[in-house]
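tokens incoming
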């Protein structure tokens, strides 16, 4: 935190031999532009947090971003993610209210919790196919987003990657794809790949679109008591059915659940839910309840 809270500091030139910068080094400074030397391979935790940073020149030698590196950089409007970055850490751009454009690389794998929380000015987000993991609140309160395209083969996506306050999801500007009362987001080749929300609260049965691959939504506040899951569904986010009033799940053909399936079964059994498995063999063992399905 060498220059932390140096509010009047407006310019700095970094040495070409610099190899390390400490956490919060330029936090709460007046620096608006900066060039990162190629000798520096890591942007440290909260390095520019709450600074006046408007533009930053990065390079492809950078291998790692730190927690909240650019958090609350309210003047930052665009950024290019270096090609060797594979993880966007927690809160990296959280509170960057004027961030409008992000150029992602094709090696990005993981987007951590609240990475783009309250990025109000983002409007077009197309995640690269390389992304496999999207955590909680990734785009929470990023209500300016109109177009959000997800990768085709996500391994894990949190059921609240948009917002934990379920009632707020409908204040977003996202152009959801609708089907029988529910909202979907798509990949490039499948507009109904991800079930992410409810559009009509009067609907009692959720008939998941036949092209859906991933259920990434918590049904907790829905009035839905029944759900029909088609054969094509491969993954369900953890806690998707927790604390619901579900009574029937028809045609359960899930190949993978992003949290141990025993948790899902525990929740379902607790609320008296009956599971009907068909077509594909499923075997899930809950040691506590001694349940198995074939």
């Amino acid at each position: 935190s060498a220059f932390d809270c140096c509010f009047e500091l407006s310019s700095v030139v970094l040495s070409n031999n610099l190899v390390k910068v400490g956490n919060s080094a330029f936090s709460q400074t007046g620096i608006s532009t900066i060039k990162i030397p190629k000798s520096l391979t890591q942007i440290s935790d909260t390095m520019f947090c709450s600074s006046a940073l408007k533009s930053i020149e990065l390079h492809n030698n950078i291998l790692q971003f730190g927690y909240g590196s650019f958090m609350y950089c309210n003047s930052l409007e665009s950024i290019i993610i270096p090609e060797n970055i594979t993880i966007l850490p927690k809160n990296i751009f959280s509170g960057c209210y004027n961030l409008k454009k992000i150029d992602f690389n094709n090696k990005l794998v993981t987007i951590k919790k609240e990475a783009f929380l309250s990025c109000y000015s983002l409007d077009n987000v197309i995640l690269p196919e390389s992304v496999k993991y999207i955590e909680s609140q990734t785009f929470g309160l990023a209500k300016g987003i109109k177009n959000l395209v997800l990768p085709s083969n996500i391994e894990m996506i949190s059921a609240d990657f948009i917002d934990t306050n379920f009632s707020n999801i409908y204040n977003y500007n996202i152009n959801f794809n609708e089907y029988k009362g529910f909202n979907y987001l798509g990949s490039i080749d499948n507009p109904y790949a991800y079930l992410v929300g409810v559009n009509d609260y009067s609907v009692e049965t959720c008939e998941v679109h036949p092209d859906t691959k991933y259920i990434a939504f918590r049904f907790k506040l829905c009035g839905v008591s029944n759900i029909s899951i088609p054969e094509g569904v491969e993954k369900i986010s953890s806690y998707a059915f927790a604390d619901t009033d579900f009574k029937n799940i028809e045609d359960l053909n899930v190949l993978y659940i992003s949290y141990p399936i025993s948790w899902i079964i525990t929740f379902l059994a607790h609320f008296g839910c009956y599971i009907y498995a068909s077509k594909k063999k499923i075997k899930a063992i809950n040691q506590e309840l001694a349940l198995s399905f074939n």
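note: The chain is about 5% helix and 20% strand.
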